[in-house]
TrEMBL record:
<feature type="domain" description="Metallo-beta-lactamase">
    <location>
        <begin position="25"/>
        <end position="235"/>
    </location>
</feature>
<dbReference type="InterPro" id="IPR001279">
    <property type="entry name" value="Metallo-B-lactamas"/>
</dbReference>
<dbReference type="InterPro" id="IPR050662">
    <property type="entry name" value="Sec-metab_biosynth-thioest"/>
</dbReference>
<dbReference type="Pfam" id="PF00753">
    <property type="entry name" value="Lactamase_B"/>
</dbReference>
<protein>
    <submittedName>
        <fullName>MBL fold metallo-hydrolase</fullName>
    </submittedName>
</protein>
Amino acid sequence: MSEIKKLQDGIYCKIIPLKGNPLKSINIYMVKSKGEAMIIDTGFDTEEIRKEMMDYIKDMDIDLNKTILYLTHLHSDHTGLSSWFAEDLGVDVYISDVDYQMVSAMASADSKRWKDVMEIAHMQGLDEDNLKIEEHSGYRYRPKRDFKHKSLNPGDILKVGDFTFKGLDFAGHTPGMVGLYEEDKKILFCGDHILKKITPNITFWNFETGDSLGTYLKNIEKLRDLQIEHLYSSHRELIDDVPARIDELKRHHAHRIDEALKTLEKHNECTVRDVAVGMHWDISARGFNDFPNTQKFFAAGEAHAHLEHLRAIGKADFRKDENGVLKYFKI
């Protein structure tokens, strides 16, 4: 059983393993004050993590009738047990309306959301990899039932005992990620908006969402203007120097943009897969062809986000070939 750590008065954390996933673990925070409690995120939908969460609840001796669940964003490592919390435990679940609509659309195995994921993989040129939706970690570990939610959008206030949190727009990593900021106590729960040592995956969602990387780069700058004494992110170690980490992440994406542009310069046209092959990835594999299939989804999505950013700033464009595959080129 994972250890529970007290981080400061009223703030606790349990690091729950995500076995078989490159993320390795997730930091599940709990705010406990004046008999009320808030749990932040859930981990994957597995029996093992469900037991970890139940032990967490029992060990912290919280009253579920006075407990809420807050979901920072839609990814399955953050929402996997949301329907269990809502329907089985009777806990009110808060999430932004934008990300809730996507989580809700993911519940059914044959939903349009998952068909869209495979259609995007086709457009990215991934047919040769013979990907199956069952290999996608977001599909495997998603909440399998829809659930009622309470809206927590940017600007909304959420009170838990002595804590008063305000929702902040951290879109980019997902279209509707919302952080929780406690101004008086200078506390920020930021989800995956900023992480130490690993970089948040910035992916292509759809053309309606648009330039997710541009949105992320804009929203990460918001952290410079906040007074933060305690920044609580969802994976790995906690960050001490926020401005320095922002600069590191911006340099990382500038390098990624340069990699994508150089690949376009070498060829008249490139698929998204071609660009992903030309990028450097911090993964134990000789190259893209040797990636586990679940990681090919994520790598292609990130390459695509950088290509769409190049298109947004007027340095690239694409056409669709006769099979509906996107072919990007430099302009």
